[in-house]
Amino acid sequence: MRGFLPRLLAPDRLARTLIYAGIAGFIWFFFLQPSPFGTTLSVTTLVGAGLVQYGSGKPFVIPLYVYVLAALILVQLAGLALGVGGQVGAALLGGALGLGLPYLAYRLQEKA
Known about the structure:
With 112 residues, the chain is mainly α. It has one domain (3-111). The chain is built from five helices and two strands, in the order αααββαα. The chain has helices at residues 4-8, 11-32, 36-51, 63-82, 88-111, and strands at residues 52-53, 60-61. Strands 1-2 form a two-stranded antiparallel ribbon. Helix 2 (11-32) packs antiparallel against helix 3. The chain starts with a helix and ends with a helix. The relative contact order is 0.19. The model has no long low-confidence stretch (mean pLDDT 91).
């Protein structure tokens, strides 16, 4: 069982799973069950998960994804400021999940 858990929690695999879940969530929340919160959460999760690559050796950041995630959060802040219904909480939560879960898996794998 010890060999199964680290392979299951591999950071690159977890990030890829979050990206696929973000795509599926976007399709669900945009087309099938419209929800601005769910759509924003899905998109920012997939961008956050793609921001750091854990392929080989040390993880590295893709600068374009940093700008895209920052732009998504700023657009939600602007929507909130203009009173058109910005979903800042969903954007921050999605970014935190997309960035945090693979990084946590990386740190746990590093200690093992």
